[in-house]
Amino acid sequence: MFSINLKFPSLINYMSKPKDSLTAHLEKSTISNIIQTARASLKDPSRPYTPAESVRTLFTNDGTSRPNSSYSLKAMAADIAPKRTARQNNYEPLPQPTRRNISSGGSKKSTREPVKTIQEDTFNVDETNMKHLLDERPDLKEIYEENKEEKSDLLSEIKEITSILEKMHQHPEVRTLYENDDIEALTVRITESLNSLRFATKKPKWAQPQVILKLLGLALERFENEIRKLLKLERCLLQNLVDHDLLYKKKESGLVGTSIATAAVKLLYQYSKNNQNDAIFVEEGLLNTLHAAVTKVVSNEDSVPHDIMLFVLGIVKNLTSNAKIQELAGKINFIAPLASMLPCLYLDDDIPDNPKQVHLLIQITGILRNLALEKTSYQNILLFHVIEKIAKIMQIHINSQELISNSLRALSKLSVQQKVCSILQENDENLVTIVKAIEKYRENLPIIIRGCFVLANIVTNFEKARKVIAYSINLILEIAIQKNLGDMRPDCIDSLVKGVRLIANIITDKDAGKDLTQADNIGKCLFTILNSYNYTDHEELILNTIACATNLLFYDQPQSPFISEDTRTLILSKVAPLMVQTLNAEITLEAVRALGNLTRHESVCKELNNLQIIDILMLLMDHSDDNVVYYTLGSLINISSVAKQLLYSEAFFEKAGMQLEAMALSEPEFSTQICMILNNLCVVSRGMVPWESVAGEDNVKRIAGIIRELKMACDQLIANGEELQDLQSMLEPLQEMMPKPFIPCSYPGCGRKFPNQELLQDHWRRRHEDE
């Protein structure tokens, strides 16, 4: 009946010899040492038994109030072994076997039969009734005989399998006789035999699936140092528990895992904590087996066996921290059964916390965090509404710190996708819940960091979300920023980065920005960050801080000051160096934008010369980034309007003329800005000398010529349909302000020149008419 035969090699000679006391002691202490090592896992995460314990744990406080994750093979054997008397525990030594192959035909009897004598008729229906039936239907006799022969073969196969498993358990030496292929063949025989038992109307007690699988579980104890063999047997055990409905059982209190299933998953969890075993888990197909187990459980609508699922999900969480396994988990769609275990979207928020359910959700959100960036899993997360369900979890279980932490870890990975942010911002309660979590766990930096990160991702793209959480600005300022100012620890710096970025994005909403009650405090915090951290080591922090300062200063207008003059000056002192002392164009850009908002104030402009900012701006006019040039010219427009005397220099007029000539009509937007600056500088101002008196004669002629030619070209292009009206509107008044050619006096030896004929005639009458 069975085509696969497993070789049973001969036992080594010393098995039949009495063992000396030293050998017996060593064998006894092997398992004992492993157990002690496993129990010490919480105190010593670097132990050889589970070297990844410090990372791969069920809970952050594993081993305290939660189920202990430390487990050993001997503990497993104790959990599943039947109660025995002292006499039954004294195993007789195996006799010296002869060399032969094990086949489906059965095994030779030893001096001690490991199982009861098989009663063949226990598998058959009543023989008397069958005889009458066959007398009446001779045509069925051949079928009956074939079936009887197959049953006999099956019984012999099961008898042989149970014998092998018992010998494995009773004699540690047996395991050395089996190679990986032998173990694989044995698992196939077990699975096929158990599948055949499904169709038997009656089974003897010793041939029940649970009895055979219990023997298999006991045999695992002998393979603690051979991981691949052990995981082959574990896969066989777990898969058959699933296939034969032996994973859990019903009790009055609900579903609970069977003793053999619970022991099996606890042991698997121990080996999943070591990431060096990941490849073996995959190669032996255990991820598929775990998927089948989870699917089996979620198909039951009554309840969930929390005790067993806690460890099943813990194994999956450990394994999916591996990038290759994440891809495999996506292919077999692990998200679907996990989504079924998450709360219904229409569930009442006031339901009481179930600690067991919370423990499962902690594992599930940990798996979702691992799979969030895997392409296929991400699509399934959207398909099965997992984003909305995670948000619901946070609303219902806001008092579970670890669950909130895991949920935010998953969302922080997912929220980099705009689609996820769109889903979260649809319900205001989702955003408010994250703010509540930040406030409730204000001493937990990871929660603060991830909460701010998720909110910042959302408000970056959705204006409505900024309005919803605008009330939280003071809270974020206190918890994420003020508490961590000056602290150089990585987590504290990360909190500053995320908090500053969140506030910077919120105040882009005009209503949120205008209603700030602590604008000056925010400004002082931003100055402290710029003063305490350098851009070389903390580039992201400096970039976010200067961007936040730009957004804050937008509301600080001369007619309605928003922050104090001292704060404004302090920020200015830190903005200037950032415009030239960094190779990061983004930081330079944000610094120039901040300066643009600052230079609207005359009091700020008075400080520019002390900081050599005019010279810096002239350098930035040649910057390779067009955005930097645009905002540089914007700052110069403000300065030329508020304090144009700062630009009254021959060097600046020369630079402006060169830039205008270079850009001309190829960059009309920049040309318009330069013309605005020149308009402000050339207009007559009380108490100031004419611009041409400081610009230098050559620069005056050059600028006037450029203006004249640019005006003619601009008019012609506008007539041809080009959109250059803004530039034209700047050129017309500027051309009027350009100096006209001077008319020399013709009287010999006079040498005076006049801008127009009227002034020349007046001079002639006064000086030369009578001569």
From TrEMBL:
Residues 110-119 have a biased composition (Basic and acidic residues). Keywords: Coiled coil, Metal-binding, Zinc, Zinc-finger. The keyword Coiled coil applies. Residues 98-108 have a biased composition (Polar residues). It comes from the Eukaryota. One of its GO terms (molecular function) is zinc ion binding. GO terms for biological process: cilium organization. SUPFAM superfamilies: ARM repeat (SSF48371). Residues 83-119 are annotated as: Disordered. PROSITE patterns: ZINC_FINGER_C2H2_1 (PS00028), ZINC_FINGER_C2H2_2 (PS50157). Residues 743-771 form the C2H2-type domain. Signal peptide: none annotated. Residues 213-240 form a coiled coil. This is C2H2-type domain-containing protein. It comes from Blepharisma stoltei.
